[in-house]
Amino acid sequence: MDIALVGIGKIAVDQHVPAIADSPDWTLAATVSRRGTVDGVAAYTDLGAMLDAHPEVRVVSLCLPPVPRFDYARQAIAAGRHVMLEKPPGATLAECHALAALAAEQRVCLFATWHSRAADMVPAAKAWLADKTLRRLQITWKENVRQWHPGQDWVFEPGGLGVFDPGVNALSILTEILPVPVHLTRARLMFPENRHTPIAASCTFHHPGGAEVGMELDWLEPGAPAWRIEAETEEGTMVLDKGGAEMTVNGTPVARPEGALGEYPTLYAQMARLVKTGGTDMDLSPLRHVADAFLLGERIRVEGFEW
Ligand code: NAP
Known about the structure:
The protein is built from nine helices and 16 strands. It has two domains: 2-112, NAD(P)-binding Rossmann-like Domain (Rossmann fold, 3-Layer(aba) Sandwich); 116-256 and 290-302, Dihydrodipicolinate Reductase, domain 2, CATH 3.30.360. Helix content is 33%, strand content 28%. The protein is of the alpha/beta class. The strands form two sheets. Strands 14-13-12-11-7-10-9-8-16 form a nine-stranded mixed beta sheet. The chain binds NADP nicotinamide-adenine-dinucleotide phosphate. NADP nicotinamide-adenine-dinucleotide phosphate binds next to helix 1 and helix 3. Residues 7-12, 33-36, 63-66, 68, 86-87, 115, 148-149, 152, 154, 165 line the site of NADP nicotinamide-adenine-dinucleotide phosphate (NAP).
């Protein structure tokens, strides 16, 4: 199937373009971006012009930052195209619900992707936790914003989520692997005095079985990134590491499943299946926790941030 990519920036170049090129399901037919292009692919700066010129493009994959994404998604859906959304699926929950309603009306597929949820060991972690009694779960998501989002000012603008931009990846795994839902009860958000979004955060969640569930996010980690979830249960300890790519149980590594594709190839295979079967895959639970942190969080002013 022919697909178009919109927003040719860091994640489009690092992940989407190679995943589409390697996929048996997709051909990259066009791009829409104000500056970015992909060699050998028809390039547009205006989405409407691309949609008019390429009726054969059935799917539009949006790799823009969250704030501008809604208008592009709305336009693509109104033109009868299936839409794939980078994470987070929108800047607010209400606009995500609006998109889901529009997609249903137009009878097109809408896929809110969560790339970390597609990491190789996430299904194994979910299966392992399914029959265990959880005592404690700790998320540690720490990285250097200067390395992972170099000069991307939008992450510190309203709607850019700040440290919850990577934090929502951890939450997308949490909401997938736990057999019961948790909800946020406390958050401390560290806002640089010259920015609109937090650079670090600490969150606590209520777990229906009484387990302690917490999350530490930090965007000023000077060393190697930590993208880890540790779950202590009555039956042993499971650690999901490297953003879901590695897993141990009681210190012993668990083998990667045969045929595991990695995050973005998995997402594009899922989108191909969704287009074949029809429907919407729009789980907003990771973004709901972020919204709750912004609703309930204590705001602490910290030193200003400069790139
Ligand atoms: P980015 O490089 O800053 O932005 C992607 C592209 O979107 C830009 O190159 C720009 O292309 C276009 N764009 C930016 N602002 C726009 C606006 N206001 N209106 C229209 N187009 C605009 O960001 P990114 O790192 O790729 O992240 C994009 C999305 O992917 C985010 O939601 C992020 O959470 C997610 N993501 C990022 C990473 C990562 O490692 N960076 C990993 C996974 C997921 P033009 O200037 O050419 O129009």
